[in-house]
Amino acid sequence: MPLRAFTALLVLLAALALPAVADAKGKASVAGLQVSLRARGLYGGTIDGVKGPWTTAAVRRFQRRAGLRVDGIAGPRTRAALGRFARRKLGKRPLRRGRVGADVAALQFKLAWRGFPSGPIDGWFGARTDSALRRYQRWRGLFPDGVAGPITLGALRARLPRSPVSFFYPIRAPITDRFGPRGNTFHTGVDFPARFGARVSAARSGRVRGAGWNPGGYGYLVVLQHRRGTQSYYAHLSRVLVRIGARVRTGQRIGRVGSTGNATGPHLHFEVRRRGAAVNPLPAFR
To answer: Which of 53, 106, 168, 280 sits CB 3.0–4.6 Å from 28 for a disulfide?
Structure first.
């Protein structure tokens, strides 16, 4: 058996040995339902996979409109009435570019929680979802064929990645937006609102791998490389105070708060990545 195929088989067997893991507080199947309801103009909340009052109210509205029993439960009859899009369940068919359905939305939801968001969680398997899936497959040591089949879906059952190293807070400010769903997209870090020009410090010692303007929406950005394949991102800065290649120590000033890039006001966007996968920074703070 080729080495790559053997590795993929081990990943699948290990994943199947684990219980199904909820994506933080949400479930991918509920996220798929929310996208189905959103497509009909019935759900305007966050695609968070949580079957809360907004989701239940949207199901009830649909049931009332469709002449079904109004119980707020998306059972077989309700999903059938929602149409083919909503009936698609993750794992019932291989997913590749061009597919459409609630199962694609569930896949997008899972990829986002594992650090590979693909833009809007909308149930359309386009170029961005294809790219996110291939990057995830490479990250897990799988063949990056862009197809979400049994091996890839088995790998997605594993626990969410975490930072192997700890961090201090990079700024004296409260946290507002956290890591997780936001609208129909996904926030890959935490935000610290602060006054324009406030000091931003290195959350851990490391080497500067990026320092300057980022065209991808981060604005002025500093990226620090730490041990065990971990990086920290400091985005939307007004000033960058370090150079690529420099060594910095914990607490050293590396920039100042701004609102550059895709920002609506002055704040620091702080992000942690493990071998390229965005992970929740909150459990890593000390």
So the answer is: 106
Q: Please list the residue range(s) of the chain that carry CATH number 1.10.101.10.
A: 3-155
* pTM more than 0.70: yes
Q: At what angle do helices 53-66 and 28-39 cross, to 10 degrees?
A: 50
User: CATH class for domain 180-284?
Assistant: mainly beta
The answer to whether the beta carbons of residues 236 and 263 sit under 8 Å apart is yes
- DSSP state for residue 187 in the 8-state scheme: E
Ranges for all domains in the chain classified under CATH 2.70.70.10? 180-284
CATH code of the region 3-155 = 1.10.101.10
Distance in angstroms (rounded) separating the CA atoms of residues 171 and 82: 47
Q: What is the pLDDT of residues 95-130, one digit of tens each?
A: 999 999 999 999 999 999 999 999 999 999 999 999
